[in-house]
Amino acid sequence: MESILDLPIENKIFYAVLVFSWTVYLWEAYLAYRQRRIYRSTMHVPQELGKIMDTDTFEKSRLYQLDKSNFSFWSGLYSETEGTLILLLGGIPFLWKVAGTVTARFGLGPDYEIFQSLSFLMLATLFSAFTGLPWSIYNTFVIEEKHGFNQQTLGFFLKDAGKKFIVTQCILLPVTSLLLYIIKIGGDFFFIYAWLFTLGVSLVLVTIYADYIAPLFDKFTPLPEGELKEEIESMSKSINFPLTKVYVVEGSKRSSHSNAYFYGFFKNKRIVLFDTLMEDYSPLNKDGEPENGPAEETDTPTEAKAKPKNKKQGCNNPEVLAMNSFLCFFLFAVLIGRKELFIAFGFYDSQPTLIGLMIIFQFIFSPYNEVLSFCLTVLSRRFEFQADAFARGMGRASELYSALIKLNKDNLGFPVADWLFSMWHYSHPPLLERLRALGGTKFLFLTQFYLLPEEFVIPNVFSLNLKLYCNGPGPIHF
């Protein structure tokens, strides 16, 4: 015990980072184990869903979620092991030296730190893309293919991955270079300027994402005139939601995932619907194929997917997130001068700003990030229940029941969740919790109504009302 206390401060920092990282991983693995036990032991449809979920669909969803959970375990173990080896073997300072060698070939010495930082960033993202590619391929062409969700060819998949990498670099490198420059010239109050810059970049990306970035990958078309568009616009007006446009995205060319999101801020909000979400628009239905779509890993499997992708962050409150960003940059300003932080990760002779950002935001702040993530998850669940209550108050409880149950079936969502796993991970309550909260006599009515689920058409417009009500202007995470 005395030997540990006698270690240099930089060694204590390094080992504390490793211990905390593995502690979080083991906690996550334990929670996943609890949920896998649910998948393996729950062999029958819950009594409350006995008349609205058939045994075949229940079994398919159980096996699908079990496969995803097993895959997540092995991919998570690989990721944690890889990260640990990178730290133990000095991978970060090594890659920094390689980046310096690359920039030196263009006649740029150590004084050109920003260029070396960009080279480092490109090499790091390239390494991450290559090491993650086999896992992504397996997930898409083995798991998703096995359960009937994948619509991509290998060629399309690789082309799409390459395009994503290029677009990411086109955004990441200029933004990073400007951020580093602001930190360099900002003086004692650089953290204020850096915070304002990142806030501005977030707002710009929210504004241009669906108009200029997303169309690089998928085809976007305005929702045609008709009953669906009229109902969406009518509902938006009834709750004073500043809707300006409604788009349909051709998501069916890559998978049968169903999804939707809205973006924008202030008085300029737009809604994007996946074609796989709507029975009248999905090419999969026109071809006579089943309408399927798995839930995202970060979502509860029973979420009605007509919701924005950013629910991991809950119902984003711009004041809360802006304050969090400011706090992080302020603490970064306090810690960036501590040489022992750089020595702990193998930087003995230099203190690059980018490396400081990585060390402090990714490693030193990791306990804070875990707590914040959990708090936002709890907040998100609270808003989901409030949104459901709002829907019930609008007299739309029956339609919400319809959307939740039908989309849960289409997405092969598993309706039973371990309470601890659900509490920690699910930013949206599981299906049974939401049905119980909506509860009352309507549940009995719907269990009879759903004796013929295949012939029922969801009123798709309703599945958006939750977000129109509860979400304020906030960034979409993509």
3D architecture notes:
By secondary structure, the chain is mainly alpha-helical. The longest helix is centred in the first third of the chain and has 34 residues, at 55-88. The protein has a 4-stranded mixed beta sheet with strand order 1-2-4-3, with helices on both faces. The chain has helices at residues 2-5, 9-41, 55-88, 91-104, 113-146, 154-185, 190-213, 227-238, 283-286, 318-335, 339-344, 353-364, 366-393, 397-410, 419-425, 431-438, 441-449, 465-470; strands spanning 220-222, 243-249, 260-265, 268-274. Residues 287-317 and 440-478 have low confidence and may be disordered. Keywords: Endoplasmic reticulum, Hydrolase, Membrane, Metal-binding, Metalloprotease, Protease, Transmembrane, Transmembrane helix, Zinc. Its EC number is 3.4.24.84.
What's the layout of helices and strands?
Blueprint: H1 2-5, H2 9-41, H3 55-88, H4 91-104, H5 113-146, H6 154-185, H7 190-213, E1 220-222, H8 227-238, E2 243-249, E3 260-265, E4 268-274, H9 283-286, H10 318-335, H11 339-344, H12 353-364, H13 366-393, H14 397-410, H15 419-425, H16 431-438, H17 441-449, H18 465-470
Parallel strand pairs: 2-4
Antiparallel strand pairs: 1-2, 3-4
Helix pairs in contact: 2-3, 4-5, 5-6, 6-7, 7-10
